Amino acid sequence: MVIKKDILKLIGPIITEQTFISSMGIINTILASRLGKEAISSIGMADSINNILIGFFSALAVGGTVVVAQYVGQKNQKAANEASKQIMYSGELITIFITILIWILRHPIVLLLFGKAEKIVFDNAILYLSISLVTYPFITAQLVAFGVLRGAGDTKTPMYINVFINVLNVILSYAFIYGIKIINLKGLGVEGAAIGIGLSRLIGAIVALYILIKGTSVVKLYDLWHFRPDIKMLRSIFNIGLPAGLESLLFSGGKLITQVFVVLFGTASIAANSIGFSVQQIFNIPGNALSIASTIVVGQDMGSGDPVAAKKSLYYMTWLASICMGILGAVSFPFARFLVSIYTTNQDVIDIAVKVVRLNLACMVLWSLSFVLPAGLKGAGDAKYTLMTSIIGMWAFRIVLGYVLGVVMKFGLVGVWIGMFTDWAVRGTLYLIRLRGTKWQKAIV
Asked: In terms of residue numbers, what domain contains 381?
């Protein structure tokens, strides 16, 4: 399969960006792993909550991406600019409200979900979550700015910013986790990991907002001090953003429930689970890039009034992702133990993690069908269908089957991951059926 030049131009910067994000995330995980399995377990537990909320903020930003992409397809720069401001303000207001709510409830939430964890793991999870909460508004500012720029077809600027803030994140995290003797900076362990990533998010938000306010040839965030809600435009944004956000909440909530199952298996399994997902990030890079690209391309095709081109583009990017990830999985399979051993020297953790990583590599094609396809459908405004499909896959298969295999039948972490792969297969099949029809091309934005 030949990679089309226009697609390559779009996904090239995204792949570079995703590679840096994943690499820096892996380095952060390795830095935390060196503090011990308790540290990586506590960060993994806190991040399972963080990821739910960050996923929700990201999904809200998708509404802005799609609307901007469709206005760009219509050559309506004024409306694209206004959509940028509407999603930035509304996204920040929602984020601040959620941040305050979770801050108040953070202790009972962690107690409810992970009360059976060891005390040191539990306490560090509370600490890490508390610091992370303060950074949520910065995350939303970044996500919205990047989404708007990508919707306008600019994937290079988000790449440059993300490369910068992720390198900065690793430097700051190392400094705050282990300390720097020359300047008498004490190592803060888990707390330092949270501070490092928090500062990088703040700086990233400032840079992203500066770029968007300065503007590009296609889109600009202007006249920020004068904001009046545009109900019609907000309805268009949230017709996509809210179903996508609800989908993300329910999907991530389901993942959190499976994390609760994992806690029952002990600290070694919690650590192995965190490592498994960290390794998964590496192999998802091509798929993540094509997921982002499919939202942009389909959105612009639909905005220009060409649903046939949108369908062809989505088919093309889905199969391209499947081929790339299938090859990557096959080539990497023999090196699973080596990859896992980079994170930890604990043999119990390595043995468990290797099993789930190998299973993941064998199921890579299923991932592309269950993530690239719905990203494109959302680009067409078909967010309600992806919401319902996600609920079916997550709650009927990943959770129920994961519990039966992992807890009831005592397959442990492997059983929980098999439930996840089954979810991928079910959702991928349902999305393919949807793509072959025409209803998704008639969604109203």
From this structure: 5-442
